[in-house]
Design a protein that fits this description.
By secondary structure, the protein is mostly beta strands. The chain has strands spanning 2-7, 10-12, 18-26, 31-39, 46-52, 57-59, 67-72, 77-82, 91-99, 102-105, 109-113. The strands form two sheets. Strands 2, 4, 5, 6, 9, 10 and 11 form a seven-stranded mixed beta sheet that branches. A four-stranded antiparallel beta sheet has the order 1-3-8-7, with no helix packed on it.
Length: 115
Amino acid sequence: QVQLVESGGGLMQPGGSLRLSCEASGSIFSIRGMGWFRQAPGKQRELVATITYDGSTNYADSVKGRFTISRDNAKNAVYLQMNSLKPEDTAVYYCLGMVGEYDYWGQGTQVTVSS
């Protein structure tokens, strides 16, 4: 069993920054990668960014140049630095852990960007 715990969400004004954190615990073997997805009301859950265990990254076009994903393999943690936030970034953000042949999801953390 793998558990993912997210933190760092909250309310921020447009143009501001937030940093999301996610740490995995449990049976962490054969980790393939970690990432972040988000889901806004009435929308499909969409990819934000992923990072493989060796450091390769992938970003949604909508966040490229504004968000940065990073990892700490020793802590089995992944982070999302979000800069230049826009109202369209408002969503519940979910952490993804890809461990072995299975995917695990965190509980989600709310990010609200509003003036």
